[in-house]
TrEMBL record:
InterPro entries: dTDP_Gluc_deHydtase, NAD(P)-bd_dom, NAD(P)-bd_dom_sf. It comes from the Bacteria. Its EC number is 4.2.1.46. Keywords: Capsid protein, Lyase, NAD, Virion. GO terms for biological process: nucleotide-sugar metabolic process. CDD domains: dTDP_GD_SDR_e. This is dTDP-glucose 4,6-dehydratase. GO terms for molecular function: dTDP-glucose 4,6-dehydratase activity.
Length: 360
């Protein structure tokens, strides 16, 4: 059994679906179901006895203690977080509560549980913390890509909260010996991506005939990784990562935002041409820049390749085509997310007993 947190969100759900599809051991999936958590992401494992869904908060110590005692996981994979930079600028409080305080509570519960395990299980236990390249701050056009030795220089409330959580994870290893692993990944994209982030927002807005808002000059660079490649990297680190180490995960796909938006438009022009024959590019609108906007991220992923033999399977061309196609094939998912219908369903479903309900 493994305990996954945040497994109803974008990356966590992709991870849980891959894990279950691979026939691995059962998963307890603890997710608070914030606006970003969506049980429909897990529709295909509903009723599967190897997936137990629990609605709850990683900051709830009593719940964590109960889940750990009941399910005796051999690992915890912590995806749960507030993840959107723009939201962190407008309201940082939730980011501190979940990313900092929540991670602290999860670490403490894990430590109490791990310390009481018998020797063999204690030796095998792992706490894997999923983090971001944004903790390293921003790069100039000529700087080398972020390596694991880069200084932490977070610039947004989001990245500062993630940096704080990484430091807590590191300290729990150094001080208490908790067997931790940390991954710092670049921008993910792929199926189930909530349409507040660049790529899904562009696809969804384009199809709805809305503006495609590009911040500032659109020349900020991000380094893109297909989400299932991120999931395979996490599996590999969980399997063979060295305790206390951090691993940078990336796809060697640095691209300016405007190029991403142009690529999405070109794919939509090919796969779902506009009725008026014009290109979706005509919907691009340059808008006010994000405050404190980091100019460039780039990941040096040589350590995970050298030590653990991990490499991404998708190129950007194959991954972005699959992604655009997924959104075209799943209009109900998009409609549910946009209308908020999935949240109403969740509220109805969990009203009586909000804690510990299996999806089954
Ligand atoms: P997301 O916002 O799509 O999903 C987050 C999930 O966590 C949601 O299901 C939400 O309900 C849940 N959650 C939030 N607060 C919680 C709490 N207090 N207790 C339990 N569950 C809670 O995020 P994502 O994009 O899937 O990111 C997952 C993790 O990966 C995050 O830690 C993020 O920092 C990290 N990350 C993301 C990216 C990316 O490009 N999306 C890149 C690198 C790292
Ligand atoms: O680098 C990893 C990080 O990537 C993760 O840790 C975060 O959780 C994840 O949200 C993502 O952060 P970004 O801020 O890079 O992602 P976002 O999709 O919000 O923005 C990508 C780039 O596109 C960024 O430079 C801002 C720009 N942008 C974004 C939106 C939503 C636009 O130009 N227009 C937009 O409408």
């Amino acid at each position: 059994m493994i305990l996954v947190t945040g497994g109803a969100g974008f990356i966590g759900a992709n991870f849980v679906l891959d894990w279950i599809a691979n026939g691995d051991e059962p998963v307890v999936n603890l997710d608070k179901l914030t606006y970003a958590g969506n049980l429909h992401n897990l529709d295909s494992v509903q009723g599967n006895p190897r997936h137990i869904f629990v609605q709850g908060d990683i900051g709830d110590t009593a719940l964590l203690e109960r889940l750990l005692a009941e399910h005796q996981p051999r690992a915890i994979v912590n995806f749960a977080a507030e993840s959107h930079v723009d939201r962190s600028i407008h309201g940082p409080e939730d980011f501190i509560q979940t990313n900092v305080v929540g991670t602290f509570r999860l670490l403490e519960a894990a430590r109490q549980y791990w310390q009481a395990l018998p020797a063999i299980k204690k030796e095998a236990f792992r706490f894997l913390h999923v983090s971001t390249d944004e903790v390293y701050g921003t790069l100039s056009a000529t700087d080398p890509a972020f390596s694991e030795d880069n200084r932490y220089e977070p610039n947004s409330p989001y990245s500062a909260s993630k940096a704080a959580s990484d430091h807590l994870v590191r300290a729990w290893h150094h001080t208490y010996g908790l067997p931790v692993l940390t991954t710092n990944c670049s921008n993910n994209y792929g199926p189930l991506h909530f349409p507040e982030k660049l790529i899904p927002l562009m696809i969804v807005n384009a199809l709805a005939g809305k503006n495609l808002p590009v911040y500032g000059d659109g020349m900020q660079v991000r380094d893109w990784l297909y989400v299932r490649d991120h999931c395979s990297a996490i599996r590999r680190v969980l399997e063979a990562g060295r305790l206390g180490e951090t691993y940078n995960v990336g796809g060697w796909n640095e691209k300016p935002n405007i190029e991403i938006v142009n690529t999405v438009c070109a794919l939509l022009d090919e796969l779902r041409p506009r009725a008026d024959g014009q290109s979706y590019k005509t919907q691009i609108a340059y808008v006010t820049d994000r405050p404190g906007h980091d100019r460039r991220y780039a990941i040096d992923a040589r350590k995970i390749e050298r030590e653990l033999g991990w490499k991404p399977a998708e190129t950007f061309d194959t991954g972005i085509r699959k992604t655009v196609q997924w959104y075209l094939d799943n209009p109900e998912w998009v409609a549910q997310v946009q209308s908020g219908a999935y949240r109403e369903w969740v509220q109805k479903q969990y009203q009586a007993d909000p804690v510990a309900k299996a999806v089954a």
